[in-house]
Amino acid sequence: MMKANRRTVVQSLGVLASALALPLPALAARDPRRYRVIVDNDLSGDPDGLFQLAHHLRSPSVEIRAIIGSHMHENEPWGGPGDQAKASAAKAVEVLAKLGMEGKVPVFAGAAKAIASMKVPVRTAATDAIIAEAMRDDARPLFYCAGAGLTDLAMALLIEPAIAKRMTLVWIGGQEYEGLGIPVPNATPAEYNLTIDRVAAQVVFNRSAIAIWQVPRNTYRRMLFSAAELMEMKTRGGISAWLVSEVEKVWEMVAKFDLSTGETYVLGDSPLVTLTALQSTFEPDPASSDYVVRPCPTIGDDGLYQANPQGRPIRIYTTIDTRLTFGDMLAKLSK
């Protein structure tokens, strides 16, 4: 939009506000929700997802339509024994309670394990919720914000392929791409979130038509928040103190193995908020974060990318605006 057009919009809003006897900010806040969001995360694991969920829930420009607690690798030490997805859903309920939002957003436990076969997708309450929201008549775009594996989304896509054209996946996952960003030292060839469910990644990347905004490993690992900042955040009490206490549990767990965590913690799921709730005012887009567009690769059985020049174009984010992300997070979670 040209500057003159922006000026016209602002002037028009001012005239309308005057006519309605409303201050301009009140008019703008009538219904600030630009987008619908489904959050899917392994909330009983790495607590970075808890920071993301709380931040998203406090962001007025998005409406969280559902929260899906997802599983991790089998026998993962993070989540403890039992059904990881149910434990993740319980954590989501706990976050809602800490924010005074009990019952305000539907919470679902996702599948307990990775997909066994593409041929027999399992219908669950989570897949039904995904399909219902995607097919619902609502003009606002729908973002599927995933911070772990892709099991539940993949099963929903297998059950109802038409939903692919009705949402955008924002995914924290996948290893780095050759020539894009700094290589990760001593990293495993396939990235953690992708290996939670390789078959699900193959469904989403290889077989579906869903639009993808991907934040790969070498990008999300740059979402560093310092230990000193966490300690300052803890003094604010409330949800902030509780979130930091969840990180402290990780530090205590790591200390048992005589390892040092250094002075930072990776809040790697926070780009899910940046790329949806924190878009620009005019020509809405995550304007302060950088991406490249490439053909969507296929995912092999080993979890690695295979070049596919005919693949649909996807966004691969190379930088995320950490100043905006963490400044906004601290402001919204200060109480």
Question: What can you see in these coordinates?
Answer:
The chain has 335 residues and is an alpha/beta fold. The chain has one domain (34-225, 263-321): Inosine-uridine Nucleoside N-ribohydrolase, Chain A (Alpha-Beta Complex). The chain is 38% helix and 17% strand. Helix 5 crosses helix 6 and helix 6 packs across helix 8. The two termini are 36 Å apart.
Quote the average pLDDT: 91
For the largest beta-sheet, the strand count, sense and barrel status come to: 8 strands, mixed
- The best one-word shape is globular
CATH class categorisation:
Alpha Beta
Fraction of residues in H or I helices: 25-40%
Radius of gyration: 20 Å
> Beta-strand percentage?
15-25%
Low-confidence blocks of residues: 1-24
First-to-last CA distance: 36 Å
- CATH fold topology: Inosine-uridine Nucleoside N-ribohydrolase, Chain A
Number of strands: 12
Spatial arrangement of strands, main beta sheet: 3-2-1-4-5-6-12-9
SSE class = alpha/beta
The total domain count is 1
Q: Please trace the helix and strand order, writing H or E for each element.
A: HHEHEHEHEHEHHEHEHHEHEEEEH
Kindly report the name of the CATH homologous superfamily: Ribonucleoside hydrolase-like
Going by CATH, the architecture would be: Alpha-Beta Complex
Brief summary:
With 335 residues, this protein is of the alpha/beta class. The chain has helices spanning 3-19, 24-28, 48-57, 84-98, 125-135, 151-159, 192-196, 198-207, 217-220, 227-234, 238-255, 271-274, 322-332; strands at residues 35-41, 62-69, 107-109, 142-146, 168-172, 211-215, 224-226, 264-266, 290-295, 298-299, 305-306, 313-319. Helices cover 38% and strands 17% of the residues.
